[in-house]
Design a protein that fits this description.
mainly beta, Jelly Rolls, six-stranded antiparallel β-sheet, 2 helices, 12 strands
Length: 194
């Protein structure tokens, strides 16, 4: 497994050095990283709004805006920080990482919702290379900043190229949307569902 990963990283690095990679995604492509939105650190008990064109560590904000939530603002599913996918309006975060064409990957993520403002039901979707792979909803009724009620969701895809872009988008166009944390990607060979 580590030998394959090393070969893929070496291949991507060689392409960048040879000038075959174009754009930020070619340079940024590496292993999937920071699924808990821990970088950069946000001041405790606060948040920062990041608009389209900005980034949260290896994640790019590709539309609208999102809020990166600091430690103590509300309960995180893993680590200290999380992301509200609706900043001032619905937003999208994405990350491009290396994959092996034809291999199946499983994505798991923790989902909750901003309990501070309506609507009670937050909605969004998971996209792989721009294609909608899963719609999601989360009902914040009875939830609070100390009891977010995270649920774990899962989606699988088969890689079609040497890089894949995973994105999470809010379809709740208010300043309080679905909350995302603890995103994990693993190569699945074989997958339990296969």
């Amino acid at each position: 497994m580590s030998r394959i990963r090393a070969l893929v990283v070496a291949f991507v690095a060689a392409g960048v050095l040879a000038g075959t990679g174009t754009g930020a995604s070619a340079v940024a492509a590496s292993r999937f990283d920071d699924g808990s939105f821990e970088t950069p650190r946000v001041s405790a008990n606060s948040f920062q709004t990041v608009s389209a064109g900005g980034s949260i560590g290896p994640w790019q904000v590709t539309s609208g805006s999102v809020d990166q939530i600091g430690a103590g603002y509300w309960q995180a599913a893993e680590g200290d920080q999380s992301v509200d996918l609706s900043g001032t309006t619905g937003g999208t975060v994405s990350q491009t990482f290396t994959t092996v064409p034809g291999k199946r990957y499983t994505v798991t993520y923790s989902l909750a919702g901003n309990p501070g403002f309506g609507p009670a039901v937050k909605t969004g979707k998971v996209l792989v290379d721009g294609q909608n792979f899963q719609d999601f909803t989360f009902d914040t009724t009875g939830k609070s900043t100390t009891n977010m009620g995270y649920v774990t969701r899962e989606v699988s895809f088969v890689a079609t190229g040497t890089t894949t872009t995973l994105a999470f988008a809010s379809t709740t166009n208010t300043a309080a949307g679905p909350v995302l944390d603890d995103v994990r990607v693993r190569e699945c060979d074989p997958c339990p569902s296969c």
